[in-house]
């Protein structure tokens, strides 16, 4: 009678293992009997007492087909091989059931055609704890699960040092494209072809040409009244300062090295110091002349051309002395600044080749020139009431007012862009244009009108009769008070008269002034 075939009896599923275990013991004893008691029916003396260790050896060697139709064998450890049926819970339109899709007997056997995945797809989903990390990522092990990890990007200026570590690139390096190593940061400087350089250079070239034209005109008409009235010596000094202001543009745009950086330290403040020292000496001279002329017939001290040059060069020497001290304390050098353009995105990072002149050092370098400029402005304000046709105070005043406006606009632009990625370009362009504009204001307001008269109205460039210092000053003051039209005298007439009177008075001994004064009193 066969269970399940000849009767309705349904056997419990674990009974087969009991039956197979009994058969395994029987097969082991049969094999042992054949070896120990060959040809003998029943037990022989060698099997009177069963050796369990020896019997276990025979049990592990059995190999027969069990009642389920599967082989019964044991491995080297005495364990039966795993036999598993693999089910998958599948949902169809009408049914939900566990369906056999494979089995395990020493190895996995799967029928992938019978498998079903969410979304009715045949693609086998990934069944691993963590995907391998891409280049430029480090593994962060999940706590308590050493076989699982999270992948973290080596971002910013980090690169992948090994599987589990990201490290920062050196200060002069940036990570490559996939953050697996570091590459040198590109070095940039202000190029001559850059739009930030073209405009300052164009202004400087035009300014130098205009300055040389004025110098050539003054040299050609050196002995004419207007040139004399402008103070030839100080004019040439002032024109030299203006020329250096324009020339500074080329130093600021040139590629930095030790030589160029040294020249920048010297000439960036020197050109402005020369210009404002000459203007300060001029306005101080005019102020002292008219103040003295109101009180005494004698000329003020130190108004001769030689004295004026000594005063001017003394003021300039202060600037040079400061630069020399700076060279002694901190020698000039070119550096590469990797912090100036160290952006959040490493791809945009650049090293800036520049001179070691900080913003504070630049202010100190220009500070003395600013002091001269402010002092000159104060004197220009004090002499604003002097008749225009008798001196250069008002043109100098307008020059200084305009210059102050230029530099007041420069300061917020220069320091307001200190955090900008374009800092190097903006600050260099702003500085060079401000210096050039200051020079252009002085050149245009002080010398272009004179050049115009000298070249196009030579009839106004003629000498007039000479009078004493006191007479000239008194006439100027009274003319301004009682005859407003007196200011319409031809340009240069009163100026040259005053200047020539001063030169004559400066050359005469003091006894001359005493005699003149006594004659006036009598």
Radius of gyration: 52 Å
The averaged pLDDT comes out at 81
What is the element string, with H for helices and E for strands? HHEEEEEEEEEEEEHHHHHEEHHHHHHH
CATH topology of the largest domain: Rhopdopsin 7-helix transmembrane proteins
Total count of strands: 14
CATH architecture of the largest domain: Up-down Bundle
Bin the strand percentage: 5-15%
Shape descriptor reads rod-shaped
Number of helices: 14
Number of domains: 3
Largest sheet: 3 strands, antiparallel
The CATH C-level class name of the largest domain? Mainly Alpha
Spatial gap, N to C terminus: 172 Å
Structural description of this entry:
The C terminus is likely disordered. The protein is built from 14 helices and 14 strands. The chain is rod-shaped and about 165 Å long. The strands form six sheets. It has a three-stranded antiparallel β-sheet, with no helix packed on it. A three-stranded mixed β-sheet has the order 12-14-13. Strands 1-2 form a two-stranded antiparallel sheet. With 522 residues, it is of the alpha+beta class.
